Amino acid sequence: MDKLKMHSPDLSQHNIDAIAELFPTVVIETVDAEGNPRRAVDLDALRQELSDHVVEGPQERYQLDWPGKRAAAFAANAPIAKTLRPVREESVDFDTTKNLFIEGDNLEALKLLQESYLGKVNLIYIDPPYNTGNDFVYEDDLAESSADYLARSGQKSETGDRLVANTEANGRFHSDWLSMMYSRLKLARGLLTDDGVMIVAISDHEHANLRLLLDQVLGSENFIANVTWQGSGKNDARYTAGGVDYMLIYARNERLLRSLDTRWKEPKPGINQVEAVGRRAWEQSGGDPAKATTIFRSGVRAIRADLEPAVFRYDQIDDEGRVFQADNMTSPNPRPNLMYELTHPETGKAVPTPTNGWRYSRETIDELMAQGRVLFGPDETTSPRLKRFLAEQSDRVPYPTFTQARMPGSKKLEDLLGADVFDYPKDTAVLARWIGAITRDNPDAVVLDFFAGSGSTGHAVMEINAADGGHRRYLLVQLDEAVDHPDYGSIADIARERLRRAGAQVKQGGGFLGSDLDVGFRSLRVATTNMADTRTTADDLVQYALTEAVGSVKPGRTDEDLLFQVLLDWGLDLAEPITVEEVAGRRVFSVAEDALIAYLSGEVTDAVVQEIAKRHPLRAVFLDAGFASDAARINAEQIFREVSPETEVRAI
Questions:
Q1: Which of 6, 349, 386, 494 could form a disulfide with 327 if both were Cys (CB 3.0 to 4.6 A apart)?
Q2: Quick one: pLDDT band at residue 4, thresholds 50, 70, 90?
Q3: What percentage of the chain carries pLDDT values higher than 90?
């Protein structure tokens, strides 16, 4: 039962509603003196609407603004006292894999990745909440100063509730979504390589705002495409069938891509099916080109619905079993060097020269004739044709508009996990198409998705590698958002299980290439700092010189936890191979073949220092609490100066 309001109506809001009916452009989002969101009227804009001349007002500028924008920029820049803790039991091939799965708030994860992956990510693909009125957004901590922000970040729980409902009843409905995206996009931009690319999926609800936001963060000059994906529409819709989503694509530096002559290509749809039909027809014909062509044409007609017209035109098989078409050799434009006579090889008479001449120069035609690729008719009255092979025409530039039902994405995940556990998973086929096209010339690309959801991006990366033998890496970030399912506690749990099963499936189906595929992932979790003193800030957690180091470690934190904080502080790749060894009777970590050696548990003896120094690592780190005295610290520094002076030595 609804309750009576027991107070008079808010006439100011009623008046604003009335003004909004007449002049919707003058109504803005703002906050009152207590910080509560509410609608208001831009009086300067209203004066302009009611005037027959230009009204003087505040200086105008072209930009996207909203309440909370400055706070979002601050949130992106403020430091945090956090780290990444490794979770071996949830990982696959932990010691050797190059892939990462990070569980936690993606704003915090992006901050933690700034040193290790600054300028190293080739492609970012994200599919953030669409802000339909039923979504959740991150409730970021907007403190008043960097010091407050840092202190509060160190006190948050390991997996604090960071999601809040963002309904249309919220007075800051669009503003909260924009603030969430702005801080994260600013951080993500810094991770891109100079020739990197960002793809952001979105629906109609925030498409216009997102385009302006990306223009602001990445630069409108770096806009590449607004890809339109038409999914399954609804026939009972009121105006249009709907079902449209978008992918906004931006370059980190489009001018650089142009100077590098970067060109994206993808396989033409149906190429592989047609080639397979051709091989079967050749085998069934016993090597007879005429019979093979008849069988081939019948087989291709059966799959014509799946082919684009350009592929369907390849309708013949030659005497070597190759699929080809007899293509026109007439030039579309006249040029003097294309006007010459061709002699028919049987009659010895000249073939009539087309009005615009031939498509190729005389030299090129002579080469093609020598290769048997110019097909003459029975006599000189028939214009010759070019023998164009299907295998040579396998690629095309990706089209920015495509139609594809979204059901396969859901069905694929349900078949893999044996249950319906996640709503609207991304379609790996669509992801693989765009990731593959953009990274075709860079099979070692690093791909980041910090709204990972069910892990579709990681799944797609593994499938692309299996198809072309590449070694692309994925970095996924997903909040541990709770789900109501008996087998999974959070979306992060679903994603990890998907990656495990998909990896095994891809490896099994990879054939000869399967043994070389990296289908593992190193599972990490955003956590508070490993250092016990919560007053110690992230700025203080850089490795000190041995003679200056102090501090202690929180109970329950391991030497491997400390190792990953060292990797972050030193800006090393978090996916470098790690080996656990015994040196002078102590458990020691070697990272990337002694790029770093870390001994972070137990007493630091002269013997272990000597053995580590003899290996001449680039870096060495010890736990300060492991030194028995100041003299022991000084002695360790002296050993390295004598045995391995090139080693950078630190302690935590």
A1: 386
A2: very low
A3: 58
pLDDT at 344: 93
- Are 358 and 326 contacting, i.e. CB atoms less than 8 angstroms apart? no
Q: What is the 3-state secondary structure (H, E, C) of 59-120?
A: CCCCCCCCCCHHHHHHHHHCCCCEEEEECHHHCECCCCCCCEEEECCHHHHHHHCHHHHCCC
CB 517 within 8 A of CB 505: no
Token pair, residue 183, equals 């801080």
CA 292/CA 391 separation, integer angstroms: 17
Kindly tell me the sign of the dihedral angle through the C-alpha atoms of 376, 378, 379, 383.
negative
Question: 139 pLDDT exceeds 90?
Answer: no
Residue pLDDT, tens place only, 595-621: 999 999 889 999 999 999 999 999 999
Contact 72, 179 (CB under 8 A): yes
The residues pairing with 27 across neighbouring beta strands, listed in sequence order, are 41
Entry pTM: 0.79
Lowest mean pLDDT among 41-50, 176-185, 257-266, 566-575: 41-50
Q: How far apart are CA 165 and CA 156, in angstroms?
A: 20
Task: Tell me the CB-side half-sphere exposure of residue 230, using CA atoms within 13 A.
Answer: 9
Q: What is the mean pLDDT of the chain?
A: 86
Name residues whose C-beta falls within 8 Å of residue 495's C-beta, 6 or more positions apart in sequence. 101, 452, 453, 454, 455, 458, 476, 478
DSSP state of 511: G
What is the distance between the alpha carbons of residues 173 and 204, in angstroms, rounded to a whole number?
A: 15
Label residue 536 by pLDDT band (50, 70, 90).
Answer: very low
Task: Give the 3-state DSSP-derived string for 611-630, with helices as H, strands as E and coil as C.
Answer: HHHHCCCCEEEECHHHCCCH
Cα(77)–Cα(74) distance, integer angstroms: 5
How many angstroms separate the CA atoms of 401 and 230, rounded?
8
Q: Retrieve residue 647's tokens.
A: 């080693």
Helix (H) / strand (E) element for 272: namely helix 271-285
The number of beta carbons lying within 10 Å of the beta carbon of residue 225 is 17
Chain mean position to CA 55: 46
Q: Is 338 helix (H, G, I), strand (E, B) or coil?
A: helix
SS3 505: helix
> What is the spatial distance between Cα 123 and Cα 461, in angstroms, rounded to a whole number?
11
pLDDT mean over 137-146? 54
Checking if the pLDDT of 377 tops 80, the result is yes
- Which candidate, 199, 310, 210, 193, places its Cα nearest to that of 249? 199
| 574-578 average pLDDT score | 95
Kindly tell me if the per-residue pLDDT of 18 is higher than 60.
yes
Contact 265, 397 (CB under 8 A): yes
- pLDDT tens-place string over residues 454-466: 999 999 999 999 9
Q: Where are the beta strands (DSSP E) in 434-585?
A: 446-449, 473-478, 522-528, 578-583
Give the DSSP per-residue string, 552-583. Answer: -B-TT--HHHHHHHHHHHHT--TTS-EEEEEE
Residue from 335, 328, 382 nearest 362 by CA:
335
Two tokens, residue 333: 């434009």
